[in-house]
Amino acid sequence: MQRKKVFISSVQAEFAEERQLLFAYLNSDALLGRFFEPFIFESIPASNLLPTDVFLNEVKSSDIYLGIFGQQYGYEDSKGISPTEREFDVAAKENKTRLVYVKQAEERHPKEELLIRKAESVIVRRSFNTPEQLKTAVYASLVNYLIENEIIRTTPFDATLHIEAALGDLSEEKIRKFVGVAHRKRSFPFTEDSNIKDILTHLNLIKGERITNAALLLFGQNPQRFFITSEVKCAHFHGLKVSKPIPSYQVYKGDVFEMIEKAVDFVLSKINLYVGDRSKSVTVDVEYEIPKQVVTEAIVNAVCHRDYTSNGSVQVMLFADRLEIANPGRLPYELPIEKLYTAHRSIPANPLIAEAMYLNGTIERMGTGTEEMAKLCLEKGIEMPKFIQELDFLTIIKKQIPRKHPANTPQVTGQVAGQVTGQVTGQVTEKIMKILSLIDNQSLSVKEMLLHLSLSGRNNFLKEYLIPAIEQGFVAMQFPQSPNHPKQRYYLTAKGIKLKNKITKHSTI
Fold first, then answer.
1. Does the domain made of 411-506 have the CATH classification 1.10.287.470?
2. Which CATH number fits domain 4-148: 3.30.750.24, 3.30.390.50, 3.40.50.450, 3.10.580.10?
3. Mind listing the pLDDT tens digit for each residue in 31-72?
4. Total-model pTM
5. In 3D, which of 446, 441, 473 has the Cα closest to residue 460?
6. With bands split at pLDDT 50, 70 and 90, how would you rate the model's confidence at 405?
7. Residue 390 and residue 337 in contact, taking contact as beta carbons nearer than 8 Å
8. Which of the residues 135, 313, 322, 495 has an alpha carbon 20 to 30 A from that of 436?
9. Dist CA 489 CA 473 (whole Å)
């Protein structure tokens, strides 16, 4: 982050010690030196420019005007105005943040007294006696500046009140839908018809008329209007490293629940899916090469615990041998990576978002998600996830080593999709092929297909999977004249059966 420029203005002769003190202090302090760059005239080399022009240009290019007023008024130009007052006036005209410190004195130059009164009429000023008192007052003012401008925070990011957003920027429909789920799953003490403000107050998402960052990320009508990098970028590569052109690339926006749902669906639509038959049970056996719970937990962690002040985004990259999920942010210092493989204390970066995800059922138990990921991977016969802290936090999940499957058990992959695409009319996506592999001699309802594919988003499933399969003539409705029939089911057409046989023929058995 670029440091904020602080222009230090005063009568140089009167405050020579204070000016040098502040210049050195703002450059060397561990906190202030990170965020502020001081300017004093004494620090610039000689030039042919008029001192007045240099002063005023520096004020215009600064972020903060820091004025030190005392007894003397200083040199007066042809209009009887000192450089200090000129600088103060330019800072006011340019709408700069103005911090003024007045040294206590029994007598002052009359014009200096007028300048102090001018400053008092528009800003709050502080008084001091000694250089150390001035340093302390400047420190307090600049820290307050950092907090007010949300450059640093004393509360978590998601609990911070947004400086612009209002209740109208939230979706009432999203809030009521959330409450309905939370009431059923976690006995949330409100129902869908409860007062919206009461709900948000209970969730610590509103204070008076102001709403928190978490409220926008959870229920915002357009969260990216306020947090432009709140998105999940998903890419699928057929090889082992990033290469262009990218075969499949999507950027998902929306609230945190929508981003998670779409990103999980992206991964599930690209990884291998083994579909059994009903020879031993009426329930079809469906198995992803990476357990759905593992994919979901990794993406949930990335979205929930990321640093939303970063210019980076969550990235989900699927390669031939692994899934990589990266998010901007760092693990808490008290939580070393090795602890992630065991039950550990939950230390969420965004606690209000984490609590809402728990109430919604997105997170089952806080502090056990990564331990469960490791357990599920081992049960599946794949390596435990690798967690790496670099500039971003990275989760790497190895894909399953190909293994033999019973005859007539299609392995639906992007490679198979590529082999059969072009042999039939229309664009055959991995999602369509998974629908075809799922439906056999028995028709299925939407609910059954969602269950078998471990998907939760009905609307996304209809848009991305089922409707394209119907439009391309591979799947048909039992009640075509009544699409919303309560007993509606879907079956393969002759064209769909033909394509399914090609899937089975080209599958790895």
1. no
2. 3.40.50.450
3. 999 999 999 987 665 455 556 777 889 999 999 999 999 999
4. 0.65
5. 446
6. very low
7. no
8. 322
9. 15
